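SAMPLE LOG
Freezer: B-3
Tube label: C17
Construct: single chain, 731 aa
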Amino acid sequence: MFAPRLYFRARPTTTAVLRRCLGSTADAQTLDARLKADLKAAMKAKDKVRLPVIKGILSDILYAEKNPAGGASFSRGSDADVAAIFQRAIRRRNDSIESFVGGGREDLAETERAKLAILQGYLPTQLTVEQIEERANQVIQQLGVTGSKAMGAVMRDIGISTAEAPKAKIAEVVKRLLTSSPAARIGRYAQRTGSLGSLAADRQSAACYMFKNATDRQRAAGYRFKSTVTPAAKDASIPLNSKTQYVTEASADGKTLVTAFPNGLRITSEANPGHFAAVGVYVDAGSRYEDGSTSGYAHLMDRLAFRNSERFTSAEAMAAIEKLGGSIMSSSSRECIMYQAAVFPQDVPTAVKLLADTTLRPKFLPEDVGELQATVPWELQDVESKADMFLPEKLHEAAFRSGTLGNPLLCPISQLHSATVDSLAEYHERWYRPERIVVAAIGVDHQQLINLCIDNGFADLAPSHPAPAADQSNSNGSWFRKILATGGANSRIAVPSCKSVYTGGTWFDSKPDVDFTQVYLGFKSAGIDDEHGLYVYAVLQMLLGGGGSFSAGGPGKGMYSRLYTRVLNQHAWIESCVAFHHCYTDAGLFGISASCRPRNEHALFDVIATEIEAVAATSGKRSSFRRPYASQEGASLFEVKRAKNQLKSNLLMNLESRMVQLEDLGRQIQVSGRKVPAEAMIQHIEAITPEDIRKGAAELLASPATVLAQGYVDGISQFCPQVAANHGIKL
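STRUCTURE (predicted):
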């Protein structure tokens, strides 16, 4: 074997390395001193580019000095510590440049490049990956070590300062070299140094190893591939298969990547740059799928999230979550149980580990179930005391009396006390199947996400009914398209019939002592599967708008919507009036909710029924029950245009949130197997016409109405049938 040429014989100190890197002598200025001197010079010269950059770095140094990370000491007199601040600032600038270039803002990208050059001027020329590999290989061979446990020793002896390369970059290279094949590592090093000599056997070993990893080159070549991966088990308690096949496809715009596994699992991501990453697990389960024996179990699964699991106790899970410093949460709805986390990019592996354990390997302990049985009744009592939370639940129960979307979202008291460790485990086994699970991420490298899911056991979940071997081995990806086309709702698991059946109905709750009477008027509307109808009712909701009798709003806040101008501004006795739209896969609920002083509830029902009837009428025509101040009936072109602009504004503003982007991505892939980009949504909204709005409102009146009232209800219970008949509303 050849003896590698070494750059050093003894490990240099950090100070010595930095002096060598920065070309300094023993009495040279520190980075902090240079920054302060340059700050004075920039202030005198009124340099508008250099000045904010230097101020920003000095601010970062001051913050690090007062808030040292992980309890480690920080000294502004230490060039090593200050250089680490520079590296983080450089990384942020690079992220900003990538974001601006991707958004077509080359002017802003150029400004960022100028600021980046200023930062890089304080540091020596950065080492390339090849240079770091060369030094690391020398140390590894000198120490004679392999495996990730030797990282500390190699990092100590490598002699590369944070001024020459970011510490994370050095650590990544060292870890890869320590865990890769020795033959491949020697081959790469020898090829660069020209020291192969007569090592034909070594070259042959390296070539064989590289041939075995041909899929790595194939993976890097494009987004669509068929790959065979051999993951290393991180935990003995998670049995991992030796080989996992998967297929990845990119959307038409290349922004969304979707990977499907033969067991039905789907992984999707969008690499939107930013300071935070978001990752979530979406399970196609919820109250609409429940029957009498499991009613409310989705709610209980939500409340048991991030507790005891195979790798974490409740205390350990809470400690890990607190250490992340981000946001991690779970929630259950009628069609989905979701688990989401927003963390720093370097904490994504920990977040995925927590999400995997709470979704795939929870432990249902008697003490946890007992705690739920003690606390959930208080939660139910709190919800019942809040009309804005309680009445929408009753609205669903009255509208879908045959179950499905009418099932209770929260666990009933009677069901709560019958829940056991075994029944919860059976529910989990039944619904948490790979074909019903989507893992989504924003701001995470897609291949990294796939590897994390494999390492944490997502790919090894057994499907309800394994797909035929021929389908799994089909190289043209037909099984991939089949998985995407089926989605969670049509999975292979044996589930009860979940097609919603709208019935309509009435529900009146007499509480004469409350301050306000609440009235809800709802109708069956379009679900997600009716794409055109979905956008029609979204625009109609904006057009009707509404709110409270007092609002600090103005232009853009809905003050010019119909329910403001024609209801709240005309009737002082009405406290609130707002349009709502609850949308699900195959159905929806559209209507108006309002509140008023007691003994006016029958008149309130007439007012909101008139608004529904009015928007369904042909423009310019009046009904016999139209109020005299109304100038027209049907929606005008101007009203529709304003509603569409407001809807587009709300849509784009919401999509600025990382967590909204994540949920939108995960749920779209889960429901339809594809992501509809915001640009396509805008086009759908723009295509809506006043005639579409009129037809949509008319279709509402074609179905039986759902009427709810709580408070003083004597008037509405007596006059409801007559008022409904006057407006053509079926009961």
